[in-house]
Amino acid sequence: MARYAQVHGSVALITLTNPPVNALSAAVRHGITETVTRALRDPEVKSVVICGENGVFCGGADIREFAKPMGGPPLVPMIAAIEEGDKPVVAAIEGVALGGGLELALGCHYRIAHTKALVGLPEVTLGLLPAAGGTQRLPRLIGIAPALDLITTGRHVAAQQALKLGIVDQVTDQSTVDVAIQFAKQVVGQPLLPRKLSTQPTPCPPDVDILLEEAMTQVKRRARGAIAPVACVMAVRAAATLPYRAGMQKEQELMATLFRSSQAHALQYCFFAQRAVGRWKLSSGAHSGNSKPRPVSKAAVIGLGTMGRGITVALVKAGIAVVAVETSDKQLQMGKQIVSEMLKREAQKRNETPRLDLIRFTTSMLELKDSDLVIEAVFEDMPLKKQVFKELSSVCKADAFLCTNTSGLDVDELAAVTKTPELVVGMHFFAPAHVMKLLEVVCGSRSSPEAVATAMYLGKRLGKVSVAVGNCPGFVGNRMLRPYLEEANFLLEEGATPELVDGALEEFGFAMGVFRMSDLSGLDVGWRIRKESGLTGPDVDPSDPPRRRQGQRYSPLPDLVCEQGRLGQKNGRGWYLYDKPGGRVATPDPKIHQLLEEYRLKHGIRPRRVDRQEVVERCLFALINEGFRILDDGIAAGPEDIDMIYVFGYGWPRHRGGPMFYAGMVGLPKVLERLEHYWQAHPDVPHLEPSALLRRLVDSGSPPIDTWRDFLQRPHSQL
Ligand SMILES: C[C@H](O)[C@H](C)C(=O)SCCNC(=O)CCNC(=O)[C@H](O)C(C)(C)COP(=O)([O-])OP(=O)([O-])OC[C@H]1O[C@@H](n2cnc3c(N)ncnc32)[C@H](O)[C@@H]1OP(=O)([O-])[O-]
């Protein structure tokens, strides 16, 4: 839909109307085509302004239409008609001009932007490329290198920077439409040809071939198997080497391949899943639509260890006052120094002043009497956490929210020691807490909708992707991680090496394989948890043989590695050898290979060849299987919740959609068949037994993932 008006005598004002972001749906494309034709034919009209309703220019093509057969006028000729017209067309950009929205503006002869506007070509984040002339017009306007950067990263550019780059002609803090109308009147009669980008040559530096080669190498390294960024470089190369028409041909060919790709489906699924998880629902019927968050202006953080420091910085970056508490003055001073340095670094990156004035450091819990919300981030030990919650319950005001950053302990058990269990929720951040985008909001059985709403909303204020989950050991993320880790250890027993397992997972798209990731987070962390749960150390049941625990297969390999003082990156040796303690360069360690050989010999294991396919299937299908159990237990409301947790918290490659989406992509019957195959081979590994939900879905013909939430309809949600 596009509205037409003639203003100031001779200016046609065309307004895109498709809330909330004026996406270029078929109806909008029809509207633009009709109104532009009318303006170009009307002799009274001397120039045209295109703008968007509600202070938003255009969020691009309508992504919801991608899953349907495309109807309505195609974008390329629609934009060409604007450019080829004999009347100046000015784009008045407010809010955003993204993807097809910016391509529409690039087809106009002039672009005026509001100071707060953002422009960009984010198609690559959807597994696509700018396919309405963006890869051919933008390089002609701003040059190859800046166009490559914007198109291969998909990043949004603020108006002032867009002016510097030459994307827009003017920036205003007044009414952009009014300024554009005045501008459109002024440019009547000016030569238009130089403003028609498709007619202009692409400015190329002498070393353009080298620049394109380097860009391709860099993009391939960063892409980790994603195909869209590579196609983006190929399309921009066409702008540097081919005439416009041939370049457009190349752009369309590349887009046709991407559009049908599973990666594009995965990335578009992630786009909508990221928005869906914000719409949470509890079994009580309370949900994000009918539960109001309470404002949080005064927060507190208990414990200034790694997590506490990151959480404090995240709160201050969002402009929230924080009381930071530590038990000893020594710990407090150390925490204060590190937090201050982190805030200074963060402020420097954003060219701002660090808000150190927002933090009060103290050793006294009494200073929390007027905090709206407290986040406990002390050592992962239940008795210690209970003591803290008891104290909080006595010093905080009656309606203060009491939140725990535990990564898997029982939230209900903590709530039970307070006077206000309904105000207790889990807020599980991921390290580094001021960087990682994921927040698991853990709903205890007595958490009130207001407490969940407040924690979810606070997560959004901190720039997090907040996902509401039920309360169980390990919640969602860590609960699924356990079978993934165990399968990796079993594969080592059977003949694999850390570098083979990691190689397969990194080829799949993970930034880091499981053993490099374990070395990064510190092998002693898992070792302590295994000791506390009686899997290793003094509390092991003496009747348990070395490779069995609680009647299940168990691999003591990680314990052996720790017993040898190998704690990972922090001390320079773990599953890999590092150049120095804390070093990041990992090299395969012959001593680990020797340890594996001796271990297999000792336990009578004949090593066999393990291929990458088996690594991917056993590690990921075991993780996915636990995901189905979590859905069936009602700990997660839908597959989107699990997928966003893994994409934003565990480095699952976004172009693979997330574990549950990937299972749907591989095909549920295949996942079931492979799990049954491995379970038969390893009957002492219960996490390989296919989950009941997976079987039910396959029996029901493997319905598409967007129907699983309804398929799950269950009275016993833990949310
Ligand atoms: C040919 C051409 O080359 C190609 C092929 C293309 O052009 S491909 C398309 C390229 N365009 C994009 O990649 C931009 C995608 N959008 C965004 O980045 C953001 O939305 C935003 C614009 C920065 C606003 O952020 P927000 O935080 O203020 O609100 P929101 O919650 O995100 O969005 C508000 C609501 O609008 C919906 N929405 C947003 N953009 C949409 C779009 N392009 N199509 C369809 N729906 C869209 C979104 O799902 C949500 O719906 P619901 O959840 O309420 O039901």
UniProtKB/TrEMBL annotation:
Molecular function per GO: (3S)-3-hydroxyacyl-CoA dehydrogenase (NAD+) activity; delta(3)-delta(2)-enoyl-CoA isomerase activity; enoyl-CoA hydratase activity
Domain of life: Eukaryota
Leader sequence residues: none
Domain 3-hydroxyacyl-CoA dehydrogenase NAD binding: 298-471
Enzyme Commission code: 1.1.1.35, 4.2.1.17, 5.3.3.8
Record keywords, A-Z: Fatty acid metabolism, Isomerase, Lipid metabolism, Lyase, Multifunctional enzyme, NAD, Oxidoreductase, Peroxisome
CDD domains referenced in this protein's UniProt entry, alphabetically: crotonase-like (cd06558)
Subcellular location: Peroxisome
Reaction equations catalysed: (3S)-hydroxyhexanoyl-CoA = (2E)-hexenoyl-CoA + H2O; (3Z)-hexenoyl-CoA = (2E)-hexenoyl-CoA; (3S)-hydroxyhexadecanedioyl-CoA + NAD(+) = 3-oxohexadecanedioyl-CoA + NADH + H(+); (2E)-hexadecenedioyl-CoA + H2O = (3S)-hydroxyhexadecanedioyl-CoA
A GO CC annotation given for this chain: peroxisome
Stored Pfam families: 3HCDH, 3HCDH_N, ECH_1
Pathway note: Lipid metabolism; fatty acid beta-oxidation
Chain positions covered by the region annotation Disordered: 534-555
Domain 3-hydroxyacyl-CoA dehydrogenase C-terminal: 474-578, 615-703
Single Gene Ontology BP annotation: fatty acid beta-oxidation
Signal as UniProt keyword: no
Record-stated family: In the N-terminal section; belongs to the enoyl-CoA hydratase/isomerase family. Belongs to the enoyl-CoA hydratase/isomerase family.
Assembly: Monomer.
Protein name per Swiss-Prot or TrEMBL: Peroxisomal bifunctional enzyme
Source species of the chain: Coilia grayii (Gray's grenadier anchovy)
Top-level taxonomy: Eukaryota, Metazoa, Chordata, Craniata, Vertebrata
